[in-house]
Amino acid sequence: VQRNQGELEFHQAVKEVIETLGPVLQKHPEYAEQKVIERICEPERQIIFRVPWTDDKGEVHINRGFRVQFNSALGPYKGGIRFHPSVTLGTIKFLGFEQIFKNALTGMPIGGGKGGSDFDPKGKSDAEVMRFTQSFVTELWRHIGEYTDVPAGDIGVGAREIGYMFGQFKRLTNRYESGVLTGKSPTWGGALVRKEATGYGAVFFLEEMLKVRGIALEGKTAIVSGSGNVAIYAIEKLQQYGAKVIACSDSNGFIHDPNGISLAIVKQLKEVERKRISEYVNLRSGATYVANGNIWDLACDVALPCATQNELNEASARSLISNGLIAVSEGANMPSTPAAIRVFQDAGIAYGLGKAANAGGVATSALEMQQNASRDSWNFEFSEQRLKTIMQNIHQDCFNTAEEYGHKGNYVLGANIVGLRRVAEAMLAFGVI
Ligand code: NDP
Question: Quick one: which of 103, 125, 160, 210 could link to 110 by a disulfide (CB 3.0–4.6 Å)?
Fold first, then answer.
């Protein structure tokens, strides 16, 4: 705590992991002897840099850029870039720390990292976003590479920003190094299904959790928070599976559509027009918009928080449970507060933590790296099947490990132990580094 003062989200993420590791440390005393946990909690490298840029009126702005290269025991650092005004070093460290375990869970050869900036893309023109992103990469390029560190998107960073980043990287290095970034457009080196992967993956994970309990997803009522990349494709897959999604949101409020959300309208508003979700009600009769409302006050069978960290608190968890909730699958990173997680676990509902449930995005990024390395491109059906198999394997690994340690159904414990074991074994093999 002393060394990482004020980094509250980072403390929260570390605490959540450490609390579950007692049993595995007893089985593996060498982890404690070799101080594996202390090593994992300290990033291998942290880069903080100035990002100056000019807006359309010619005014100069200064933002702060971050890249935390947390752990490379299993492969090059891998993790997204977030552009959001709330970003601090503590935010990036919490995300990077989670990423180590998540990436290990996928079974792919990728280490953990994360980056971003306190830049706010909202209300900025394409040209402003481009100039900012180019300035960001003018520093970042020297720290990344196919074999070193491979960033991707996250909040505020989608295909447009990845395009600007790749263009600037290519220009500065004079290298067409496709594998340096993932989340690229499929027209120039991106993988099909990457855009859909995190949302689809969270639904595949949900399906697996329900299967264990003998429950079908078809006919269930769902709530998905957020209306960004993860939320949109979680809604799409839920609808394909016959679930009815009645609400989604942005940071200003939520929409409630008891007839089931029209995904075509949401995609048009968010992906094409970059508008607010409140506009939905102007295009759809029977739907209502609740400004500053709490989406978790609505009743549903399954909840998929897909917006941001700590968006679902203890009171919301209690309200969801009393309204008949049976499962939570987290598309976002750390969306439920520690107290909310306790409520879910005490109630015995299926609780799929983000580290496991949203790992489909980074797993598909690793598939994008595979395709880039072999100069190949796979079709949609094949890629989706690979994603589904990976999510099924992650679910099975977490489930079996929780059972092995006497905590059947505790995916938090299962995921943290699977992730730790994989990273720790590699770190021990490398010696004290
Ligand atoms: P987007 O930027 O595409 O969408 C984010 C959505 O969440 C928007 O609707 C946004 O609303 C809302 N949101 C963001 N911040 C807040 C906030 N402080 N309060 C309320 N709502 C907020 O991001 P993604 O969909 O890519 O990411 C969503 C979550 O999923 C994040 O936690 C991210 O780390 C996680 N994730 C993403 C992956 C990916 O592949 N993209 C992979 C794994 C995890 P508004 O427009 O009002 O800001």
Answer: 103
Which stretches of 213-304 are DSSP H helices?
229-240, 263-267, 280-283
The alpha carbon of 212 and the centre of ligand 1 are apart by a number of angstroms equal to 29
Q: Are 4 and 93 in contact (CB under 8 A)?
A: yes
What pTM value is reported for the model? Answer: 0.97
Q: 290 forms bridges with which residues in the sheet?
A: 254
Q: How large is the ipTM?
A: 0.98
Confidence of residue 344 (pLDDT cuts 50, 70, 90): very high
Q: From the alpha carbon of 198, which atom of ligand 1 is closest?
A: 40
267 is in an annotated binding site: no
How sure is the predictor about 281, in pLDDT bands with cuts at 50, 70 and 90? very high
Query: 144 alpha carbon to ligand 1 midpoint, in Å?
Result: 24
Protein residue whose Cα sits closest to atom 11 of ligand 1: 250
Q: What is the pLDDT of residues 238-257, one digit of tens each?
A: 999 999 999 999 999 999 99
Q: Per the domain annotation, does 227 fall within a domain?
A: yes
Report yes or no: 256 and 219 within 8 Å, Cβ to Cβ.
no
Query: From the CA of 115, how far away is ligand 1's center (Å)?
Result: 15
User: For the domain that residue 62 is a member of, what is the CATH number?
Assistant: 3.40.50.10860
Indicate whether 281 belongs to any domain. yes
Task: State the pLDDT at residue 323.
Answer: 98
